[in-house]
Specification:
Elements (H helix, E strand, L loop, with lengths): L1 E8 L6 H14 L3 E8 L6 H11 L3 E6 L5 H11 L4 E4 L11 H10 L4 E6 L7 H17 L8 E8 H9 L7 H7 L4 E6 L13 H15 L2 H31 L6 H33 L7 E4 L9
Parallel strand pairs: 1-2, 1-4, 2-3, 5-7
Antiparallel strand pairs: 3-8, 4-6, 5-6
Helix pairs in contact: 5-8, 9-10
Bound molecules: uridine-5'-diphosphate and magnesium ion (MG).
């Protein structure tokens, strides 16, 4: 039985050695063969040279190196496409996903009736309150309007069986949102809670704005509900205009002509203009995604690897 650990790395020179040491300790105690599949996502620091060094010392280490930064989603996809294990896990390089959970996760898969074991943080300690609030709202909204079924606090850290990996690889969309994909493909998932762990070293690659865009992208990738917002707005505004039409006609009939209402007319014009642009924007988002999807560009380009038969472009 082989276990593959997929580790996306982008500028992780401070944490990779630590990660390798800790994971090797844990895996050494487990009764299975394993590979550590590092994906260097176009790092600009020493990440790749550290990986090469580790690969020379440790035969468990394999790496794929992208020709540029394609993002964590692409790195995970490359990992799934090239991992050969019967069990496959995704982990962050910064030790926020504790390797110590792996033995228990594997046991659950081997002896339980689950296809994957996923980790979730049970607290958001140490995070700005505004970010927590938005995160909470995001999970509420996406679960209500899509099939994606995402648990609050879910991380990308999970161990899964081969069948699940095949299903993920078969979803070849280029606008990828893994949290949604994991939920969409189904299978039986066990949720393992653990307390939040701070990054071991280096810096997070996410800021509030990036996270916000990631969330909006996730919703658009997994739901058409925002499009119907446009129709509802349209219907609501039509209703309002009928009511005001009635009001104007009645006023004319009952009280005669008047030139009042200049300000309110401008207000209504601006309001309707705003709503129209907003709805056009929603449509634009979907069209943009469709446009990118129809180009069928590769998800990633590998410039270097020490693993046999990798698909260099996919
Ligand atoms: N990562 C990546 N490509 C990117 C950004 C991040 O491969 O463009 C990797 C990063 O090296 C880390 C993981 O994705 O292993 C999670 O990133 P980070 O720790 O910055 O995110 P956070 O844990 O703060 O959500
Ligand atoms: Mg992290």
């Amino acid at each position: 039985m082989l276990m593959s650990l997929i580790i996306p790395c982008y500028n992780e020179q401070e944490s990779i050695r630590m990660f390798h040491k800790e994971t090797t300790e844990v895996m050494g105690k487990m009764d299975c063969s394993y590979e550590l599949l590092f994906i260097d996502d176009g790092s600009k620091d020493q990440t790749l040279s550290i990986l090469k060094e580790l690969a020379l010392q440790d035969a468990h280490v394999t790496y794929l190196s992208f020709s540029r930064n394609f993002g964590k989603e692409a790195a995970m996809y490359a990992g799934f496409c090239n991992a050969s294990g019967d069990y496959v896990a995704v982990m962050d390089a910064d030790l926020q996903d504790p390797p110590a959970l792996l033995p228990q996760m594997l046991k659950l898969l081997q002896y339980g009736e689950y296809d994957s074991v996923a980790a979730r943080r049970d607290s958001r300690e140490g995070e700005p309150p505004v970010r927590s609030w938005f995160a909470k709202k995001f999970y509420q909204v996406i679960n209500r309007i899509s099939d994606a079924d995402i648990v609050d606090g879910a991380r990308d850290f999970r161990l899964m069986k081969r069948e699940m990996v095949e299903a993920i690889v078969s979803m070849g969309e280029c606008n990828r949102f893994s949290k949604g994909i994991f939920g969409w493909i189904g299978f039986r998932t066990y949720w393992m809670s653990y307390g939040n762990i701070a990054r071991a070293a280096g810096q997070s690659k996410w800021n509030f704005w990036k996270l916000f865009q990631y969330g909006v992208g996730g919703i658009i990738n997994f739901s058409n509900a925002p499009l119907s917002i446009a129709s509802w707005f349209g219907m609501f505004m039509t209703f309002c205009s009928f009511v005001s039409l009635l009001f104007i006609v009645l006023r004319k009939v009952l009280f005669g002509n008047s030139v009042d209402g200049w300000a309110s007319t401008i207000c209504v014009i601006i309001l309707i203009g705003g709503i129209q642009l907003f709805c056009l924007g929603i449509m634009g988002q979907y069209i943009a995604k469709t446009y990118m999807e129809t180009k069928h560009r590769p998800h990633y380009i590998i410039s270097e690897a020490n693993k046999a038969d990798v698909e260099k472009i996919r």
